[in-house]
Specification:
Blueprint (H helix, E strand, L loop, with lengths): L8 E2 L8 H4 L1 E2 L10 E4 L6 H17 L5 E6 L5 H13 L4 E7 L2 H10 L5 E4 L8 E9 L2 E2 L2 H13 L8 E4 L3 H9 L10 E5 L5 H12 L2 E5 L17 H13 L4 E5 L6 E4 L5 E2 L1 H12 L8 E4 L10 H5 L4 E4 L3 H11 L3 E3 L5 E3 L10 H15 L3 H6 L5 E2 L9 H21 L2 E2 L2 E7 L4 E5 L4 E6 L6 E7 L3 H18 L13
Parallel strand pairs: 1-2, 4-5, 4-6, 5-9, 10-11, 10-12, 15-16, 15-17
Antiparallel strand pairs: 3-7, 6-7, 7-8, 12-13, 13-14, 17-18, 19-24, 20-21, 21-22, 22-23, 23-24
């Protein structure tokens, strides 16, 4: 008689084996700072998602005191199957499942409000490459798990002590219609705009073009057809290949701007009417300059990767806007926006969190696009002119060198200590003294001329994150980057970079 321990979690299960279906594969590295992500087959299998459903149903009942869970999934070839496995696990705990089907992450968050359901789970690997899967896990309305919550949730997963019961299931069809109605509640644009919309063949291609046409835009679609192999490029607004393709389409079509939306619809990337890539923190500043005077005295939250221009912007100062720097990560910024009742939160990665009266505090690329287009129509200036009115800065892309999960935090801590010593010793970086060091999330060292460099550990991949901004010159931007890179190389812990600085 074979002894089977089907729900006993294993960290190694061979693929293409009987055990792949008779055992539960789930590695510990998938439990990240504020969501869970694994490589399918290598780090988790379908049984792992049944266990995740058992665990979240238990978490919903014991911690959130909820008996209903809203569930959705993104557009990847395996996402629906894994979502169904997750639902099987939920049902075994006795909860009521509300299945919204294929959706954007913000549609899942919207559905939580629509059904007044604080428990929710979105099966998505966001912008990660094909082969990745994961779950964005809610702990309330406009709220997702943070590090302490992940620890508590992981304890339930690994305990094997799950609630039992006979759950119920309903599939709902009206979420997209209600989401669209909500996004367009302020009516059409005051001025028609011609826009390029790129979705990288991901989930947003099903939803965003239709909504933006209803807003009153002429929409040119780029890679909005369904292709779950993502053959052209990964749907990531920080990927230079994605942005370059949008630039080309914007210029060739004479569009007012080009918009890229990531794989699960919660991040935005934009190029202007001249086909220039504008990083999302700069775009967030432009939007803040429009909405903050209409709502004076409210704060905005930015992440540690964002431009320093927020801090000395005259329009934000005149409207009494406090600028709060916080940790990178959608759960962190959502929580900080809620805690401070900020008007908005902005991440360089393209997550924008628009709070009341504009939104509900969660990250939504479609709503962000709608509001940004309303700003352009109202201001009546091309985006290139608006961005050129800002002080000149030189900004690096967001760069990600490989670093193993078990080593990346130690690498960051070691280099942070070196920059602290540089400040104490009066050493110069990029020709400038270090005047301040921020360690709320990795290390961001600010130079005497307000240029800065950032090194932090990625929250959802075995990778580091490097960003540089110079207020002085393009050459200084490269000098600061080279300084960080040299220190990373010296650790011997760094692998391949996901993308590189543009040619000097």
């Amino acid at each position: 008689m074979m002894k089977r321990m089907r729900w006993s979690i294993q960290t190694q299960v061979p693929q293409n084996s009987y055990d792949y279906f008779q055992q539960t594969l789930m590695t510990g590295n998938g439990f990240r700072e504020y969501d869970v992500r694994w490589l399918l087959g290598k780090e988790i299998n379908p049984n792992g998602f049944i266990v995740m459903g058992k665990s979240y149903g238990t978490y919903a009942k014991r911690v959130l005191k909820q008996n209903r869970v809203v569930v959705g999934h993104d557009f990847r070839r395996y996402s629906q199957d894994l979502c169904n496995a997750f639902i099987v696990g939920l049902l075994s705990t006795g909860v009521e499942v509300i299945d919204i089907g294929m959706a954007l992450s913000p549609m899942l968050y919207f559905a939580q409000h629509l059904y007044n359901c604080p428990a929710g789970a979105m099966l998505t690997a966001s912008h990660n490459e094909n082969g990745w899967t994961g779950i964005k896990i809610a702990k309330g309305l406009s709220s997702t798990l943070e590090p302490d919550d992940i620890i508590a949730f992981r304890k339930i997963v690994e305990s094997g002590d799950y609630e039992t019961g006979s759950g119920s299931y309903q599939s709902v069809e009206n979420v997209y219609a209600e989401y669209t109605k909500d996004a367009l509640k302020d009516g059409p644009l005051s001025k028609k705009l011609k826009i390029v919309v790129a979705a990288g063949n991901g989930t947003a291609g099903r939803f965003a073009p239709e909504i933006l046409r209803a807003l009153g835009c002429e929409v040119i679609e780029v890679d909005c057809t369904a292709d779950w192999d993502f053959k052209r490029y990964n749907p990531n607004p920080e990927d230079v290949h994605f942005l370059h393709n949008i630039c080309d389409a914007t210029k060739s079509n004479g569009a007012d701007l080009g918009i890229g939306i990531d794989g699960d619809g919660d991040r935005i990337g934009i190029v202007d009417d001249k086909g220039r890539e504008i990083f999302s923190d700069i775009l967030g500043l432009l939007l803040a300059r429009w909405i903050c005077p209409q709502n004076p005295g409210r704060a905005v939250v930015i992440d540690v990767k964002s431009t320093g221009l927020f801090f000395d912007d005259p329009i934000l100062k005149a409207s009494g806007t406090q600028v709060i720097t916080w940790k990178t990560g959608h759960s962190y910024i959502k929580a900080k926006v809620a805690e401070t009742n900020a008007l908005a939160g902005f991440e360089k990665s393209g997550h924008w969190f628009l709070n009341t009266p504009v939104g509900r505090g969660y990250d939504d690329a479609v709503l962000s696009t709608v509001q940004f287009l309303r700003m352009l129509a109202a201001v009546g200036k091309p985006l290139s002119e608006l961005s050129d009115e800002l002080p000149k800065t030189w900004n690096s892309p967001t760069l990600g060198p490989y670093c193993a999960d078990h080593e990346k935090y130690a690498v960051v801590d070691g280099i942070a200590a070196l920059y602290a010593q540089d400040k104490a010793d009066g050493a110069r970086v990029g020709g400038q003294l270090i005047k301040d060091i921020v360690t709320v999330n990795g290390v961001r060292f600010q130079l005497a001329d307000d240029s800065w460099g950032l090194l932090r550990a990625s929250s959802n991949k075995p990778s580091l994150v490097v960003v540089v901004e110079s207020r002085t010159s393009r050459d200084q931007m490269y000098d600061v980057f080279d300084h960080i890179k040299a220190r990373l190389d010296a650790t011997g812990k760094i692998g391949e970079w996901d993308q590189h600085m543009p040619p000097r």
